[in-house]
Amino acid sequence: MKILVCISHVPDTTSKINFVNDDTQFDTNGVQFVINPNDEFGLTKAIWFQEQQAATVTVANVGGADAEATLRKALAIGANDAIRVNAVPTDGFFVAKQLAEVAKNGDYDLIICGKESLDYNGGMVPGMLAALLNYNFVNSCIELNIDGTSARAAREIDGGKEIISASLPLVIGGQKGLVEEKDLRIPNMRGIMTARTKTLTVLEPIEANNNTKAVKFEKPASKSAVKLFSADDLDGLINALHNEAKVI
Asked: How many CA atoms lie within 13 A of 34 on its CB side?
């Protein structure tokens, strides 16, 4: 079984976020980047298939040279090889088109994406990728088992989960639950050293339309100071909730 794991290169949630050029561009200075958490769950599941079913695992990213550190981490975790499409990931459709081209050339049986990336939370790429390839698709996937060319998956729905059977080739949009946090792999020294010798292929992008663009970024408004009321000032509290907070 050949598996392609799509990896996003995203800011760590502990990083301080700022914007430049009149708030039209994300400022990467001083920002630590990591593997997108939803993608990391998917990568760990792929490594499990590698160990249990002799699958080969390729990781792919659409991004600049700075993303190669993230791909090398994926290689250190256990992926067999990596592909970087040398392009700025401008919107979901553009990214999906690039990944679809990689998938067509690689003839993969299973494509694992995170259901959304931590930075833009668009949640578009897995579904678009499946549509472009005409593959079966399971989103919000929290369980996955493969037996030959048959897959049994579970996806999270409101109030529970839905069990789905599908045949390969298959695209999934994975999330926490696909594996547990305690099962995530941390690169060891042997993995880090081995990753240096593994193949990282750089491809030039194919032509694709950028159908959307970010016009401006805006941070959430700062939280206002806490306003305290004495226990016997119920009228004052109700007045503030009604006229100031406007929640009642």
From this structure: 15
- In the block, which residue shows the tokens 């409101």? 158
Q: What is the pLDDT of residue 148?
A: 93
**What distance in Å separates the CA atoms of residue 113 and residue 5, rounded to the nearest whole number?**
6
Q: Are 95 and 62 in contact (CB under 8 A)?
A: yes
Low-confidence ranges of the chain (pLDDT < 50): none
| Distance of alpha carbon 136 from alpha carbon 146, whole angstroms | 14
Beta strand 150-157 pairing with 25-27: unpaired
pLDDT for 196-214, tens place per residue? 999 999 999 999 887 787 8
At 188, list the tokens.
């060891």
Burial grade of 148 (CB within 10 A; 0-12, 13-18, 19 or more): exposed
Q: How far apart are CA 117 and CA 173, in angstroms?
A: 11
What was the pLDDT predicted at 54?
A: 94
Instruction: Judge residue 129's burial from the number of C-beta atoms within 10 Å of its C-beta, 0-12 exposed, 13-18 middle, 19 or more buried.
Output: buried
pLDDT for 231 equals: 87
Taking the C-alpha atoms of residue 88 and residue 83, their distance in angstroms, rounded to an integer, is 15
